[in-house]
């Protein structure tokens, strides 16, 4: 289905930062979102923020095909 609610599309997304309130994630169009566990994203929701491993995990339902997507913090962003 089309993304009519302009939800975060995590496919092709990047994890920018982790903060106590959640995670900043950018989509492939350059839009930035603050999301937290349980929040709805395009085709799914955020299932876990792992502060120890600097990752966020999502479950997506692509027309009956369930897919887990994990984004990892890019440590090179902070060195620019």
Could you explain the architecture of this structure?
- A hairpin with a 2-residue loop joins strand 6 (55-62) and strand 7.
- A four-stranded antiparallel sheet has the order 4-5-6-7, with no helix packed on it.
- It is built from no helices and seven strands.
- The model has no long low-confidence stretch (mean pLDDT 93).
- Helices cover 0% and strands 50% of the residues.
- Please estimate the helix content: under 10%
What's the assembly state of these chains? single chain
Low-confidence stretches: none
Strand share of the residues? over 45%
Task: Supply database-style keywords.
80 residues; four-stranded antiparallel β-sheet; three-stranded antiparallel β-sheet; 7 strands; 0% helix
Could you give the topology of this structure?
Elements: E1 14-19, E2 22-26, E3 32-35, E4 40-41, E5 44-50, E6 55-62, E7 65-72
Antiparallel strand pairs: 1-2, 2-3, 4-5, 5-6, 6-7
Q: What's the short story on this structure?
A:
The chain is mostly beta strands and 80 residues long. Helices cover 0% and strands 50% of the residues.
